[in-house]
Amino acid sequence: MTIRSERRYFLFEFSTLTDPAEEQRLRDILRQSFRLPDDYWETYVRRIGRSNLRVLRRAGQVVGGLSIYRMGQWFGGRRLESAGIAAVGIAPEHRSAGAAAHLMASALVELYEQGVAISALYPSTQRLYRKVGYEQAGSRCDYRLPLASIGRSELSAPMTRVEGIEHEPYYELARTRARITNGNLDRSAGLWERIVTYPYGDRTVYRYLIGEPDAPEGYLMFYQDADKQSAYDLYVRDMIALSPSAVQTLWRFLSYHQSVSKFVFWSGPAVEPLLLLPAELHADVTAYKRWMLRLVDVRKALRERGYPPEVEADLHFNVVDDIVSANNGQFILNVANGRGEIRDGGRGDLKAHVRDLSPLFSGLLSPTWLRCTGHIEAGDQAVATATSIFAGPPPWMPDSF
Hints:
Low-confidence stretches: 1-9
Strand content: 25-35%
Number of helices: 11
CATH superfamily of the largest domain: Gcn5-related N-acetyltransferase (GNAT)
Order of helices and strands: EHHEEEHEHEEHEHEEEHEEHEEEEHHH
Shape: globular
Radius of gyration: 22 Å
Number of strands: 17
Largest sheet: 13 strands, mixed
Oligomer: single chain
Mean pLDDT: 93
CATH topology of the largest domain: Aminopeptidase
């Protein structure tokens, strides 16, 4: 496997950490880059794992690095092995020299060699990540809802307080949600810990199961805005409701806080299904973010993704990849019974840079719009076939990392 790079990139060396002094240097760079709290490093490293830290050296000195969350991500009802890229930081004095691009390209080659299918991240700047093959692929919307708009009534299902930070009580509920949408994560233990606790400090996160404890239909995790002495707002870490009674109970339970709270905040999809059942819920969108995806191993990603079970079709690809050379070339995706198979060759009816496969793969944008905007080249029949193959719910995730 080779990295196609400008000549100046060969000044850099990419590797794992080798000693505590390098970790100290990486910590200082990331603290400066992202204003990480002074006492957060050990917690962060424990959640992500020291073996998943990478550094970039120049003339033997650490000049930057990144972190890799080992996780899964769901598309078409199937889980794919994914790498969540986080904390990509370069020391200011070494920026604008190709360091970040070399860091990312090296990480992608390593991930390909490890058999990882896809990679996701939240970009601080999209230009860098597009350069190495990432593209927008899904959303994360932040909502604000006045609690007074919910109304008051009795709970229609039990609410059970959960002590402890183990994620097992919630795992199957999260997997159920993931199967019926696109883009949700199969969280690592570290990502689960970020959800069930407050990620940067000591605020209390309250955790509840909705429904009978032995057969829950949802869950709710939230904390209170502790910066205010009297009234406070509620901030949801994650919430799931998988039945009408669970949805009603979720909102009713939150409404019980309106004597001391004004708003509830949460993150969800651009079209939030939890707002459809109760009447007169008018939530404001306070932020709209797009995460990016990269097909690390194009053939593996397309083979392992799920597809509509009623679709039987062949789609002929011609892919260009500037970083992972093994992705280049023509191949045929055969879809039947919800599964994909790959064979080399074909006509190359749908031509795309690996970057532009991401919104197609995730379902963020239709093949018609991707062709209209110049992201793919394809005839009418290939567009129609791709539309049927990649049909599904809009991609989103509640997590940030």
